[in-house]
Amino acid sequence: MRMMTFAKRCAKEILRDPVNLGFGLGFPLVLLVLLSCLQKNIPVPLFEINMLTPGITVFGLSFMTLFSATLIAKDRESAFLQRLYTTPLMGIDFILGYMLPVLPIALAQTVLCYLAAIPLGLSISVHMLSAIAGIIPMAVFNIALGLLCGSVLNVKQVSGLCGALLTNLSAWLSGVWFDLKLVGGIFEKAAYALPFVHAVEMEQALFSADYALAFAHVFPIFLYGTGTLALAAVCFLRQMKQQ
Amino acid sequence: MQAIKTMNLSKRYPGITAVCNLNLDIAQGELFSLLGVNGAGKTTTIKMLTGLTTPSGGDAIVGGHSILRERAQVKQLIGVSPQQTAIAPNLTVKENLQLICGIHGFSREKTRERIEKIAIQLALGDVFSRKAGTLSGGWQRRVSIAMALISEPQILFLDEPTLGLDVIARHALWEIIRALKGKVTIILTTHYMEEAQALSDRIGIMKNGRLLATGTAEELIHLAGEHDFEAAFVALVKEDVLCE
C-alpha cells in the first residue's frame, strides 16, 4: 500500500514532464518513420519493417533508463528523498516504487511502436503480443540501470551518461542501425558481450515466431537484468544509509 | 513528560566531530530552538534524531523510543521539514499532502479529513490545485511544513524553516509555528536570533558540535551578562570550544 502510493507519485512525476515524455516516446517513432522511408528508397534488409520495429522498441528502452535515473537524481538533489527517509517507507518500498511505474510506460512505448509500424507496412500478427511481452526482461534491465545511475550520479551526470552515452551505446551496439558482422572483430565481440544486441535479436525472433532462437538470447539479458538490479539495490540502499 | 532526551549523543566523521556528547531534555509540547553559526552541529543533531544519520556514540529517546533500536517506531511519531524545500514539484499541493497520508497508511476518509484541516490551518486554499513546483519559495516552504504536519506528528522538526524567505513570508510562517505551540513538540534550528527569541520556549546554543548553554532567551541574556539576545549569543559563542 505504502509502496503503491509512492509508485503512483513517481508515475505522475514522469508522465507530467512533457519534454521528457515527448522526446522519450516520440523520438523512437520518428526514427521508425525515417528509417522506413529510407528503406523504401534504398532497400536495406536490416531496415525492413519486421526487422526494424523490434529493434526500435529495444532502442526506445534506453529512455526508460533516462526517466528513472533523472527522477531519482532529482529527488536526491532536492531533499525530497531525505524527507521520505524520515517516514515509515522502507528501502524495498523505494526500490519497487521507482521501478514499477516505468514498466507500464516501457510497455506502452513498445505497443506504440508496433501500432505506428502497421501503416508503414508491418503485418498484424499474433506474434506481436509475444514480442511485446518479451520486452519485459530488457525493460527491467534498463529500469534497474536507471535506478543504479540515479543512486550514484547527480542530475547533470545522469543527463550526460544516460541521455547521451547510453542511448548511443544501445544504438551502436544493438545491430539496429548496421549489421555488426560488417564491422566484426572486437566490436562485434563487445556488442555480443552486452545485452542490447541479444535483446534486439530476441525481439526479432519472437516476432517471427522463432522461439528456439529467442530462447537462445534470454540468458545474457536475464544475467544483465538480475546483476544490474542487485547492484542498483545495493547502491540505492547505500546512499540511503549515507543520508 | 519528556519528548526527547539525548544521552551523550555524538557524530564523528573522519577528521571532524560534528556533534559531541550532546545531552538535551526537551519537554512535550515545548518549542525548542537550536541556534548556532554554520557548522555548529544543528542539522546533524536533527538528522540523528530523525533517523537519517546513525550516531557514532550515545543514544536518544524520541517519543519514548530509542533512535538506535526503534527507528521504525520513531518514524511513526515524527514530522520533518528539511532545510531544503522537499516537495514533489510536478504534483499539486493536494497530491503532495495525499502522498504523505498514503505513506503513513491513512484511510481515504482520514486523508480527506486531515487535508481539509491542514488546508485551513495553513491557509493553503488558494494554491491547493497548483503544481507545487510553480509556487514561490514562501509557499513551497509552507507546503513543506504542511507535509510534515499532515501525519499528526507528536514531534515536529523544522530545519531552518525560514531560510531565504522575505520578511513577509517569514512572519507568515512564524504565525503558523506560533499556532502550533503547545499542541506539538517542535525542534527548530535557525541562524536568526530574532526568530529563536520570538518563537522559542527554550533555546540551545551550539558551537563546534557542543551545546554551550540552554535556557529561555532572558536566562541566556542574564547568563552572558548582556542587555540583548544578539549580544548574549555573540558573547557565548566567542569562547573557543572544541570537542575533546
Can you lay out the helices and strands and say which pair or pack?
The complex is a heterodimer of chains A (243) and B (244).
Chain A: H1 2-15, H2 18-41, H3 49-60, H4 62-77, H5 80-85, H6 91-99, H7 102-117, H8 127-134, H9 136-152, H10 155-172, H11 180-183, H12 185-193, H13 195-207, H14 211-216, H15 218-242
Helix pairs in contact in A: 1-6, 2-3, 2-7, 3-7, 3-13, 4-9, 4-10, 7-9, 8-13, 9-15, 13-15
Chain B: E1 2-13, E2 16-27, E3 31-36, H1 42-49, E4 57-62, E5 65-66, H2 71-77, E6 78-81, H3 93-103, H4 108-121, H5 137-149, E7 155-159, H6 167-180, E8 185-190, H7 193-199, E9 202-207, E10 210-215, H8 217-224, H9 229-238
Parallel strand pairs in B: 3-8, 3-9, 6-7, 7-8
Antiparallel strand pairs in B: 1-2, 1-4, 4-5, 9-10
Task: Report on the architecture of this protein.
- The complex is a heterodimer of chains A (243) and B (244).
- Chain A has helices spanning 2-15, 18-41, 49-60, 62-77, 80-85, 91-99, 102-117, 127-134, 136-152, 155-172, 180-183, 185-193, 195-207, 211-216, 218-242.
- With 243 residues, chain A is an all-alpha fold.
- By secondary structure, chain B is an alpha/beta fold.
- The A-B interface holds A 1-2, 4-6, 8-9, 12-13, 16-17, 78-80, 82-89, 241, 243 and B 47, 50-54, 72, 75-76, 78, 80-91, 95, 99-100, 102-105, 131, 144, 147-148, 151.
Oligomeric state of the chains in view: heterodimer
Let me know the largest β-sheet of chain A: none
Note the overall shape of chain B: globular
Q: What's the overall average pLDDT of chain B, rounded?
A: 89
Low-confidence stretches of chain A: none
Q: What is the terminal separation of chain A in angstroms?
A: 25 Å
Q: Could you say which structural class the secondary elements and strand pairing of chain A correspond to?
A: mainly alpha
Fraction of residues in β-strands of chain B: 25-35%
Question: Which tags fit this structure?
Answer:
heterodimer, A: mainly alpha, about 80% helix, B: about 240 residues, six-stranded mixed β-sheet, four-stranded antiparallel β-sheet, about 40% helix, about 25% strand, globular
